[in-house]
Amino acid sequence: xxERSRLRFRALAAxxxxxxxxxxxxxxxxxDDADSAGTGPIKIALVDAQSGQLSSLGKWEHKGxxxxxxxxxxxxxxxxxxxxxDVFDDQGDPTVGTNIAxxxxxxxxxxxxxxxxxxxxxxxxxxxxxxxxPNIASGQSPGMIALKSPFLFLNGxxxxxxxxxxxxxxxxxxxxxxxxxxxxxxxxxxxEHDAFLKTLADRGIEPVADxxxxxxxxxxxxxxxxxxxxxxxxxxxxxxxxxxxxxxxQARDLGIDVPFAGAAPQGTPVYIETAGAENxxxxxxxxxxxxxxxSAAAEKFAAAYKAAYGEEAEMHGAKAYDGAQILLTALxxxxxxxxxxxxxAIRAVRHKGLLGDFAYDDTGVGIKATKIGIIKxxxxxxxxx
Length: 385
What we know:
The chain has 14 helices and 14 strands. It is an alpha/beta fold. Strands 7-6-8-9-10-13-14 form a 7-stranded mixed beta sheet, with helices on both faces.
């Protein structure tokens, strides 16, 4: 009798252990709870800075992605299921981002949108790759592509595209050859620095000054004084919105009155507000999204964005909107797949977006074109327009 009871206990224990192992081995989004069983909400994480110096990027991204999710949910969701977009604040810190990557892996999120900060995306990528969580990110550093992760996608061009377009305009069209550079040593700044320097080298041009600052620097007088001594025709900026604005403001105070040139950050309201509208006049900007009236689709997006948030849309919100649309389309096309199947579905999406026509290649880049805009009277307008 005692032996029979022991046998029953061992069988029961083995059964419990087997169930525990099955649950532990389930891929993200494939556990037995309602969220992943096809009856509950589809969980997507949005990771971006919601606090700190880069918080404007994160807030724009959240609004753009949320607008897309709200539209899909209002239309019935995906397979009758609502999409749940949860926001995580990475504070612009790669270490915080890495911890968030582990958290979203443990909480059965099917995919991630963000970040807008290249360094944070790069830090999170190994965990997301191991856990097979597809990520559509908004940074532009070529360092993201160098990771060669099949689970990492970009919702915009890389610095290579931004800066080749910029060089064509500044050097080829405007014949400017005395070019100074100032960039920061963060992932974004280094990517911009290296990409633009290559475009100049390809044209046989060496910058008259090449100054590198730290990502948290506030006083640029030493670097700007060296630039002023070289009397450049234009100054290339490789830094985020706030830092770029501070650089331009201090440059004007030092008597540097030539145009500045850069990529996405220089086309934002934060850059203009930080530097002062009179100081950024004439800034040359390479961007895939110059204004809210560039197309019928952009006008529709901008109207919906303003109705939802009471403010004007800008490029980062448009990028996040495109990225969310691509992810949601892939989820629908794949019948809410996870892991590699979802990554393959994202790669297969062909999307006519606000930034252009997306078609992903094996590198995770889906769009390779930008336009040139000029800041006039405090607004970014298409060059020649």
